[in-house]
Amino acid sequence: MRYNEQERSISRSFDFMPLGQAIKHAREARGITREQLAEMLDYAPRHIQSIENEGQHPSLQLLVHLVTMFDIPVDAYIHPQHAAQSSTVRLQLDATLALLSEKELSIIEATARALLSARSADNQ
């Protein structure tokens, strides 16, 4: 298979929906409207909506700009076989956690440990 054929095959098989949702979630977490983002990037709001909600593939340049702007780690989306078969919710949570400060992360960690402790107590 030639490179262009392989590239097209990968493009057709790549489900962009989870990454689009992570972009949307990160944008909303920062309090940026779709219209504001579209204006900042010089794209139509409808194009941003299609990426976030319909799984439309953005150009590589736009993808890099979005994931850099919102600090979204993309490895789990691009190589899902290397991830622990993460659900969309887990991937979105990972993107959200990347936006938090160390202090905020320590609060989340303490909350998660308390939830696990409560679950353990309920199972006894």
How does this structure look, described?
The chain has 124 residues and is mainly alpha-helical. It contains 8 helices and no strands. The protein has helices spanning 3-13, 17-29, 34-41, 45-54, 60-69, 75-78, 88-97, 102-122. Helix 2 (17-29) crosses helix 4, helix 2 packs parallel to helix 7 and helix 3 packs across helix 4 (45-54). The radius of gyration is 17 Å and the shape is elongated.
- What fraction strand? under 5%
Name the shape in a single word. elongated
Q: State the major sheet.
A: none
In DSSP terms, counting alpha (H) and pi (I) runs of 4 or more, how many helices? 8
Q: Evaluate the radius of gyration.
A: 17 Å
N/C terminus separation:
57 Å
Q: Mean pLDDT score, rounded?
A: 84
Low-confidence stretches: 6-10
Helix content: over 70%
H/E element sequence:
HHHHHHHH
SS-based class: mainly alpha
Summarize this entry quickly.
The chain has 124 residues and is mainly α. The chain has helices at 3-13, 17-29, 34-41, 45-54, 60-69, 75-78, 88-97, 102-122.
Topology:
Elements: H1 3-13, H2 17-29, H3 34-41, H4 45-54, H5 60-69, H6 75-78, H7 88-97, H8 102-122
